[in-house]
Design brief:
Blueprint (H helix, E strand, L loop, with lengths): L2 E2 L29 H11 L8 H7 L12 H5 L8 H7 L11 E5 L3 E6 L13 H20 L2 E7 L8 E9 L6 H4 L19 H8 L8 E5 L1 H21 L1 H7 L7 H7 L12 H9 L5 H17 L3 E7 L5 H20 L3 E4 L2 H12 L4 H10 L5 E9 L20
Antiparallel strand pairs: 1-6, 2-3, 3-5, 4-5, 6-7, 7-9, 8-9
Helix pairs in contact: 4-5, 5-13, 8-12, 8-14, 14-15
Bound molecules: flavin mononucleotide.
The site of flavin mononucleotide has 19 residues, from helix 5 and strand 8.
Length: about 425
Amino acid sequence: MALDVTPVPHEQVVPTALPITLAPAPHAPQKFSRRRIFALAGAGTVVLVVGGGVWRAADQGVFSTGEGPAYAPWSDWRAATAGPLNLVRAAILAANAHNTQPWLFRVTDTRIDVFADLSRRITLTDPFLSEMHIGLGCAIENMVLTAPANGYAPLVTLLPDATDATHIARIDLTPATTNASALYQAIPHRHTNRYPYDTKRLVTQPTLDALSALNADAQVRILWFVGANQHKQVGDLMNAAAHAFVADKVMNTDDNIWYRATWQELQQHRDGITLDAAGLSDFTRVLGKMLPPESLDQQNSYFLSGVASQVSTAGAFGILAVPNKRDDAQRMAAGRLWQRMHLWSTTQGVAMQPLNQMTELADREVVLGTPPRFGTALTDLVGDSAWQALFSFRLGYATQTAFLSPRRALNDVLKP
Ligand SMILES: Cc1cc2nc3c(=O)[nH]c(=O)nc-3n(C[C@H](O)[C@H](O)[C@H](O)COP(=O)(O)O)c2cc1C
């Protein structure tokens, strides 16, 4: 049975007492020297050490993972001067599905209006825009956490214009005492971690309770799945959903638009899914960057073995549920909670990763009119007809620190 946790009043959850220092990183990601590339290549693929091997390594960013303009927003986010634009700089760093960054912001001295950028929707994977709204909620949460650090009290109004569904939120800013919370300070350190997690380190009940206590919204519930039976039940479904995703060639091909296969593409678009952030072994990651872009089949095989390892090493699984998964405001509330949970876990050295194929497949079944295999399985997992599964994830202690994902620049997301 899923453990249902009742929301607590907001006053109890403001995380001012959290430690500011971030927990030490696990095994840090490796940057590769040329010498090490040769050693790696020599171990398996001789062709890489001859001809254009070194050139391609440099050209593909093997020596500069996490660097260049596409990654600058992670270090530029805290501008020297306080002001509303700093809230947008933080919003840019929020979690969002496929890293499409589906947001635009109109900024004045006292107000920020947030808009959905529908050109950045994931057409077939997110037909009802659930993931888009969750990501927009994540961005709103980063802005709400950044407002006090810039001397503002934020007032959020969701969907302020009944005639425009893309007008996602209005955030009015009034002067207030400056306060930089621990969650605010964790913003540039939060990264989705797709590496295997340490199966010897358990996620304790107090950790799950602390995460549950971050939920201040009666319209969102966190369901936890722990212990061997629930691990198998949820894990099997996640693996099955990943396989179903790959088997759906139409959706799979459409989804692949967001994969950035080369370093040039990544630095140019500054969005999407990258090899560096995929949680691959260092060896596979580096070879993947040096060799010509993989075929979709090769990517799918990485993806499926990645999900299998992510599932089998998960410390626990969770689902965020809402009363109505088609309600935009509820989805944004869930996104705000996810961002807060991930920031808090960052302060504690706990890794997190959404694994959302189950809900993606459930939506796909609705679109295609096929039997609701994943829809029914999710209903069973939630076990309460008053709540619907919206978003699923795993957590645990990572074996390796995650790499950054790219981000677009401030100027690219401002709306006149
Ligand atoms: C609604 C939503 C669904 C997501 N689904 C997945 C998923 O199924 N698998 C995964 O590895 N990451 C998933 N992610 C994580 C995003 O890919 C990630 O946030 C994005 O690439 C940006 O990277 P970052 O979180 O490290 O900043 C999801 C994120 C959101 C908000």
